[in-house]
Amino acid sequence: MMKASRKESIMSDSAYVILTSASKSTTGNFFIDDEVLASVGVTDFSIYRCAPNSKEADLAPDFFL
């Protein structure tokens, strides 16, 4: 399962984006880590893969939920 997951650093990076955003636009919202990062221009999520050779489509959802 770990090989099909992302590193926990994706959560901290997305939390940083949320916590440094304007509170009026973030309060009361539900966020998904990769969507948050994509909204600020992150396009390469390969740095977050636990197994560097895995493909984005092979990642399992919700491992750290």
What would the keywords be for this entry?
single chain; 65 residues; mainly alpha; 3 helices; 0% strand; elongated
Q: How far apart are the first and last residues' alpha carbons, in Å?
A: 14 Å
Shape: elongated
Helix count, DSSP H or I runs of 4 or more residues: 3
Radius of gyration: 13 Å
What does the main sheet amount to?
A: none
- Low-pLDDT windows of residues: none
Task: Give a nutshell description of this structure.
With 65 residues, this protein is mostly helical. It has helices spanning 9-19, 23-26, 33-39.
Write a structural description.
- The chain has about 60 residues and is an all-alpha fold.
- It has one domain.
- The chain is built from three helices and no strands.
- Helix 1 packs across helix 3 (about 35-40).
- The longest helix has 11 residues, at about 10-20.
- The protein is elongated, with a radius of gyration of 13 Å.
- The two termini are about 15 Å apart.
- The model has no long low-confidence stretch (mean pLDDT about 85).
Please specify the SSE layout and strand pairing:
Blueprint: H1 9-19, H2 23-26, H3 33-39
